[in-house]
Amino acid sequence: IQSVVSLGDPLMERVPMGRGCRVTDITNLVLFLCSDYSSYINGATIPVDGGLYGSGDNIGSTILTILGLL
User: Fold this and answer.
1) How far, in Å, CA of 15 to CA of 59, rounded?
2) Is this prediction's pTM over 0.90?
3) How many whole angstroms from its chain centre is CA 40?
4) d(Cα 53, Cα 37) in Å, to the nearest integer?
5) CA gyration radius for the chain?
6) DSSP assignment, residue 20?
7) N or C: which end of the chain has fewer CB within 10 A?
């Protein structure tokens, strides 16, 4: 399975972790949420984005710029 963005992609340069999302990044979250360890989590949005959301980067406008729509 390939990453949606390549390493030379301008979007990838903005990801604080410096890499694309791996399948295990998603599956580890799913396994955690299915376990008893997450029993008190309710109605939360958990971004799996390598720190992009928390960095304050406006990802919406970044994507539109890359696509040439902004």
Assistant:
1) 10
2) no
3) 23
4) 24
5) 14
6) P
7) N
